[in-house]
Amino acid sequence: MEIRRVRRDDVKWFIEVYQRAYANLPEYAYTRRREIRSYFNWLLGRDQEGFMVAEVGKPVGFVACDTNWISYYSDEKVGEIHELFVLPEFRNRGIGSSLLLKALDYARNRNRRVAELWVGEKNENAKIFYKKFGFKEEGVWGKWVRMIKYL
Ligand SMILES: CC(C)(COP(=O)(O)OP(=O)(O)OC[C@H]1O[C@@H](n2cnc3c(N)ncnc32)[C@H](O)[C@@H]1OP(=O)(O)O)[C@@H](O)C(=O)NCCC(=O)NCCS
Fold first, then answer.
1. Residue 55 CB: number of other CB atoms within 10 A?
2. What's the CA gap between 48 and 43, in Å, rounded?
3. Which residues contact 95 (CB under 8 A, 6 or more apart)?
């Protein structure tokens, strides 16, 4: 498995992997290709270096860590994990963990003090996953739970 920076021409893979990764979580994800494409472009524009892809011969997972994000809560720049997903058939072999660790390292290297993310309230798997890395629940906004970790 290799992790590299995302390029503009990864957009087709991003859309395919995203749709399959979120197939069982439609309430927390975009469903239309056009929306997912815009989201990809938005992520690239936010922080290109923090947008990474894991490949096992082909792209199987993505993470997007935005170090230009200012938290609504603390008014400081944080490492905002906007996105993390892995293809279902490639889960439980450490790919999600490797992507998250890369994202946290990147935020640390950019001197961010806090990593933040928002996870769907019913997305129990993801919440358990993040807690293993030291993320703690710190607030709710609608159906989203805020989680943070001090870096
Ligand atoms: C959350 C998500 C990214 C995790 O990805 P993943 O690649 O399965 O993550 P990992 O394999 O690193 O860790 C998952 C489990 O595998 C275990 N694991 C880690 N490395 C392993 C290895 N080398 N071999 C076997 N198991 C391993 C972990 O301990 C963990 O165990 P758990 O079942 O007790 O949680 C993935 O489930 C996903 O894409 N979910 C849908 C999208 C989503 O909800 N994203 C988060 C939005 S906020």
1. 15
2. 7
3. 1, 54, 56, 60, 61, 86
List CB contacts of 145: < 8 A, sequence separation 6 or more: 118, 119, 120, 121, 127, 137, 139
- Tell whether ligand 1 has an atom less than 6 A from the beta carbon of residue 103: no
Q: Which residues on neighbouring strands pair with residue 141, listed in sequence order?
A: 144
Å from CA of 43 to ligand 1 middle: 22
C-beta separation of 120 from 109 below 8 A: no
Please return the burial class of 58, using the count of CB atoms within 10 Å of its CB with bins 0-12, 13-18 and 19+: exposed
Q: What is the tens place of the pLDDT at every residue in 107-121?
A: 999 999 999 999 999
Whole-model pTM: value is 0.95
Cα of 85 vs centre of ligand 1, distance in Å, is 9
Q: What architecture (CATH level 2) is domain 2-150?
A: 3-Layer(aba) Sandwich (3.40)
